Amino acid sequence: METPQTCCEQGHQNLEAMKAGMFLRKVKSRMWKRQRHYKLQEDCKTIAYKSSWAINSYSTFSISDVEAVREGHQSETLLGVADEFPADRCFTLVFRGRRGNLDLVADSAKEAQAWIKGIRALMENMENMDESTKLDQWISDWFMKADLNKDGRINFKEAKKLLKMMNVDMNEEHACCLFVMADKSETGTLVDQEFVEFYKMLTERTEVLDLFQDYSSDGQSLSQCDLEEFLREEQLEGESSYEHALQLIDRYEPSDTARMNHSMTIDGFLMYLTSPEGSIFNPEQQGLFQDMSQPLAHYYISSSHNTYLMEDQLKGPSSVEAYIQALKRGCRCVEVDCWNGPNGEPVVYHGHTLTSKILLTDVITTIANYAFKASEYPLIVSIENHCSIEQQEVMARYFRDILGDMLLTNKVDGVSSELPSPEALKRKILLKGKIRNESESPTGEVSDEDEAAEINKDSLASESPPTDGKKSKQNLCKELSDLMFCKSVHFHSFEHSRTSAKPNEMSSFSESKARKYSKEAGLDFALHNTRQLTRVYPSGMRTDSSNYCPVDMWNTGCQIVALNFQTAGMEMDLNDGLFTQNGCSGYVLKPEILRKRERLFDSENPEKREDYHPVQFYVKVISGQQLPKVKQKDWSIVDPLVRVEIYGVPLDHAKQETKYIDNNGFNPHWNETLQFKIHTPELALVRFVVEDYDKASRNDFIGQYTLPFTCIQPGYRHLHLLSKDGTSIHPSSIFVHIKIKEL
């Protein structure tokens, strides 16, 4: 066994080997394998790489961009070259967001281990940094970019250029005075740490300082009583404010002296305001806090459509990587479209299109490996089955053998009047598909009631449907049918469902059908969704993998609202926003108004409900911090504005925005109050969007943050912006004051 001493030495050796640099093979396919030189920079935070033929032009990526390191043949690309390169020399870097993986092969197992263990150790270091260290880190990363001759120093001219790159447009005289103050060595240049100090002086938060002084008895610090008053008056914390004040001082105050005196300096106050406790999202609702013992039909379930696709629905690649990404985001319902493949092996792809094909066995193996990494609650696998009886038998064998004990096959027919709860189904995989009904069809035929048929009706590009008006029939093998936990059924009417439907029967609706029922029979649809699971999927016309707004479907209680996870945008922001609560478990308990059968809620007329309690929502947009550049040109600086968007029942849909601020991405101040009347708070989502104003064309997107209205904390709060694909763009944030008043 390795002692801590040898572990430590080994860790040091790994980093030294990485700093010395190494040739690794970058693999994109069986045909594309190129040598690249990779080396860890001295900052231990950046990896530089270049082609073997490039003389000096290194490109770089940051360790903080890496989400995971996978060992061995754990990607489709590396599986494709498994006969050529042994697993102990292969590894994959998985990046955050939608950036592609990097598949690498080292010359020896020892070299591969140096990189695998080295990068993991550096990632762990990054994870353990506090907010203040992360900010210093971010500034240092910029410094490294600007220090072109790598002597560890920059002069005022270089500093000005760097600030432009960082989106800072400043008064030159003011900046020059601060530069001289930061230049402790009086050399006319700044080293790394001096530049961090210079940047902090330049970006001093005057609005936070004013707030701090409003509550400070002596103008220098906040005593425990001062801080308690702030927490009670502004953050509306009530009874526990006094004890909480002391906890915050212990947690965020960097000065030992102030901590011993039970007081907080401006630095501690700013650290608290930018911490998770100072966030707009109530931390108590980020962990698992909901009752998970109610029937499945009482929960919204994070769901993906055509999960295997990385891009569009016509010619994009299919990949097991798409399943990994969706499952890591907490998705709890994935889709598998199965078709006959060569050599008796079923394949997964978007039928009758040019999308690439992947083996069903690879998909099931991936599901088995990643099903419960992000959430322990049940995973539903929605199966579109287009296979022959022979290949269906192969499907059944794979599902049984690969999923093993995770697969739940016992039926709920006749056992109970309701589906089991997420709690009762923890770490179980539920298959949903067509079930052979012996009594109706001795040959095991079932009507073709699947999504593909529905999509063909939607799609103008589809081939002509059968002219005889009959449903096409499909033979279904008993072994596969017996594995289905949820039965796909054709929807006849709400009346038919109420009197005849079993709890494990599920209908799928295209977005247009679901919208039609919501408008024309909203109350019946809501009642149906208190008992039955409903799945909604995008229209067949969306060949570009675009998404529909999921909120309309959630308003009537639809649980499985499937979206194209691979497509970034407002729709996925809303999905991520809803499912960020409750431990990112992929299950969110529907509001009581959508679970009660005796008192139905009509989302078209929210004011008619018995316990109607609308609220007035005030958002004072105060300031922004370190907003990223949109255009990478040196001279370009953003003109930011903030838009607040409300999504929920139709009456609540609203948008308002601030004016834009000229040329200031690093500390814009708006100080504008936007206000909204919200009729159904428990169904509302709030999306904050920051854009770069452009009078000649469409504004450019800078960042966004979306959360359920019920998870908002009142008072002075920061919201930490996310990129288009939902990843953090640290340290970009917006500072707001929130007030919610019952009407």
Automatic annotation (TrEMBL):
Keywords: Calcium, Cytoplasm, Endoplasmic reticulum, Hydrolase, Lipid degradation, Lipid metabolism, Membrane, Metal-binding, Nucleus, Repeat, Transducer. Residues 134-169 form the EF-hand domain. Its cofactor is Ca(2+). It is found in: Cytoplasm; Endoplasmic reticulum; Membrane; Nucleus. It comes from the Eukaryota. It is a peripheral membrane protein. SUPFAM superfamilies: C2 domain (Calcium/lipid-binding domain, CaLB) (SSF49562), EF-hand (SSF47473), PH domain-like (SSF50729), PLC-like phosphodiesterases (SSF51695). Residues 596-723 form the C2 domain. This is Phosphoinositide phospholipase C.
